[in-house]
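hey so i finally got around to running the thing on that chain from the lab meeting. sorry it took forever, my laptop kept dying and i had to restart like 3 times. anyway pasting the input first so we r on the same page abt which one it is
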Amino acid sequence: MREAERGETANRAAYKAMHADVKRDVSQEFLKRLRQMAESNQPNLPGFGSAGLDFAAGVAATPHERCIAQHAQRLHANGIGGRDLMQRALSEGLADMRTQQLRQVEQHVYLDGGRGAREVMTAVRTACNGVAEQLAAECCGVVPKRATTATRTRIDPDEDLAVRP
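ok and heres what got predicted. didnt touch it at all, straight out
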């Protein structure tokens, strides 16, 4: 990767890629059901026989949804509930998704990357840091959604580009 493509540019590309994956693999119906379950099941003290979260068979249909549901059930069993349950389950599930994707990228980079493979993987990991947490917070409504397209200033075709002293 060129130096100019690192930093915020690479982070934006990683965000857009993971946002597209989440949009494809985690349905709005699943998020709605998770929100309802998290808000209706108040947290209990760990180990005091709290009723497990019950996901209907057809709701958690994709592997990523099942992973998020498993995290939610584990967190609920540990006494976490409400919005915190939803955000932590999404964050951990999306972090698992990111880890799987990084492993796939790593396989390709190390097989075909040559001498610069280590630097490329370091840049990819740096670009992906915090993306899962950002997306989880957006899905829960904690933070406003980030623009998935690059924001550009408007260009005036008649602008005078001459350099003046």
